[in-house]
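--- STAGE predict ---
source: upstream dedup step, 1 unique chain passed
mode: sequence only
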Amino acid sequence: MKQVALRALLIVPLLSACETTQPMTATQMDAFQVREIEAPADRAFAAASSALFDAGYQIHVSDADAGLLTAERREDPSVAVNATLVILTGILTRGAGATDKPPDYYAICLEVLPRGSDRSDVRIRPFFNGQVQAAENPNARKTVQEIWTLMQRQVLMKEPAK
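--- STAGE serialize ---
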């Protein structure tokens, strides 16, 4: 039983390391992180704030004058994952070091800069557990694309007539 659990623990990291991606050029990094929005800075900032809320983030810093937003989202592991990890580490350590999986923290730093009266540049930088996510990371790409999509929806919404 112990050997089966040990083999399973050794095979999982090997399988997850099989995917490779090409490093991005500086131009590709800029295109990934910075995009132009057809909205004035105040409206782009409001759209960014709403997009973060819609994506489940909790905003920690919101400075509209500086165009800076930081937000964080906590993701707890499932009960099944925790139970499996506790059982496996308990078996492998003979009950001396059974541990559970800590939560994951996703963070985003957004910068909104005016680029004229009707346009803005928005830079998104994703983080995972306190580390900057490289643009090559598929999770980083997914996070950035999700925020862009939500921002575009907010920008396209009409303001109510006064």
